[in-house]
Specification:
- The protein is of the alpha+beta class.
- The protein has a domain at 12-77: Arc Repressor Mutant, subunit A, CATH 1.10.10.10.
- 46% of the residues lie in helices and 12% in strands.
- It contains 5 helices and 3 strands, in the order H-E-H-H-E-E-H-H.
- It has helices at residues 15-25, 32-38, 43-55, 74-90, 106-109; strands spanning 30-31, 59-64, 67-72.
- Strands 1-3-2 form a 3-stranded antiparallel sheet.
- Strand 2 and strand 3 (67-72) form a beta hairpin.
- Helix 1 (15-25) packs across helix 4.
- It starts with 14 loop residues before the first helix and ends with a helix.
């Protein structure tokens, strides 16, 4: 399964978006440093998110070849699916692609 994490219009990401990004990265298992770089988080931020997500069982940590590997759990994948569905529901018509083509805003289609 491939999930889509929607882009937000603001420059700042909310916590739910960051949780979804971490889950997307950890779907097939990944190292802490890979999550940190791909999700663009500081080490301190990442540790807080991983601690919280492990506590509520969105991700699990396993030791493989002496390294901590993080995997999204079934609950985490369910969260990711629902987050993506909500993002899709909240999109405006201009943001929704039609036949794989993104429609430009109406003011670009008008002739001056």
């Amino acid at each position: 399964m491939n999930y889509y994490v929607a882009e937000t219009s603001s420059k700042r990401r909310d916590k739910l978006c960051i949780l979804a990004e971490i889950l997307e990265i950890a779907k097939e298992g990944t190292l802490k440093t890979q999550i940190m770089y791909k999700a663009n988080l500081s080490f301190a931020q990442l540790n807080e998110y991983l601690k919280f997500m492990t506590k509520i069982k969105l991700i699990e940590k396993f030791v493989k070849n002496g390294k901590d590997v993080y995997f999204a759990t079934g609950k985490g994948l369910d969260f990711l699916t629902r987050q993506c569905e909500l993002n899709e529901m909240l999109k405006t018509d201009e943001e929704k692609p039609r036949n794989g083509v993104k429609v430009p805003p109406a003011n670009l289609l008008r002739k001056s």
